[in-house]
TrEMBL record:
Lineage top rank: taxon: Bacteria
Keyword entries, A-Z: DNA-binding, Transcription, Transcription regulation
InterPro entries: Homeodomain-like_sf (IPR009057), HTH-type_TetR-like_transc_reg (IPR050109), HTH_TetR (IPR001647), PsrA_TetR_C (IPR041586), Tet_transcr_reg_TetR-rel_C_sf (IPR036271)
A GO term, aspect molecular function: DNA-binding transcription factor activity
Chain residues forming the annotated DNA-binding region: 47-66
Protein name (database record): HTH tetR-type domain-containing protein
Keyword Amino-acid biosynthesis: no
Length: 233
């Protein structure tokens, strides 16, 4: 067969163009809007039409960039889950690289602190935090509580959670894995509660200045103490 053959299997394939800056911005605006609306209204209460309007685009654009509503929901959850996973595993690996013995507190810090830092909840100035990351916490709580999204939880969160549960198991070798899993889920729930209910701390405190500034430290101490009590023989 000659080089000039018209066989479609041998013809050079056209190069795919990289997404334009405008296309990337539109995609991100859709994800941000969907994140907020899914968190505020739930999956069933947030329509694609409302998401498109909040993103300043058309329904067809939502479908073009992210497919169906269910596919969009999955992408919203996956987007920050992968970033959090990298940050948490990097923090754990950094602890191991120091050569120091791991503790329950240090393992929990490696898991909990990356989210609180991204959400801006540990800012020294007591600022309200990043509304998108705070919305994401409500979304994670929703996904964790609804069996419809079991596959998303299993894909996005379980691999990293299993690594940390394994580290805790090495620190408590006589404890059944099921008890560790329960205590770990309680700790994650405490993190999500802090993320979505910080206004309650401010409302219940005697004054805004009474709110702890280093929330990660308070949360880790709370979770570590609860976990030790739950895992005690």
């Amino acid at each position: 067969m000659t080089k000039n053959s018209t066989n479609p299997d041998l013809a050079p394939r056209p190069r795919q163009r990289a997404p334009s800056k405008r296309s990337l911005e539109t995609s991100r605006a859709i994800l941000d809007a969907a994140e907020r609306l899914f968190a505020d209204r739930g999956y069933d209460g947030a329509s694609v039409r409302d998401i498109a309007a909040a993103a300043g685009t058309q329904i067809a654009s939502v479908n073009f960039h992210h497919g169906s509503k269910e596919a969009l929901f999955a992408r919203v959850v996956e987007r920050r889950a992968s970033e959090l996973s990298e940050l948490r595993l990097s923090a754990l690996n950094a602890l191991k690289a120091k050569g120091e013995a791991l503790t329950l507190g240090s393992v929990l810090t490696a898991f909990l602190e990356p989210y609180l830092a991204k959400a801006g909840l540990d800012a020294a100035d007591g600022s309200a935090g990043d509304p998108q990351w705070i919305a994401y916490a409500r979304l994670v709580a929703m996904v964790s509580a609804d069996s419809r999204w079991h596959a998303i939880s299993e894909r996005c969160f379980d691999p990293t959670a299993s690594v940390f549960i394994g580290e805790i198991a090495r620190l408590t070798p006589r404890v059944e894995p099921a008890r560790i899993a329960v205590a770990f889920v309680f700790s994650v729930s405490a993190m999500l509660s802090l993320s979505t209910s910080r206004w309650r701390i401010e409302a219940l405190a005697a004054s805004p200045d009474a709110e702890p500034r280093r929330l990660t430290d308070v949360l880790v101490r709370f979770c570590a103490a609860g976990m030790r009590a739950a895992l005690a023989n």
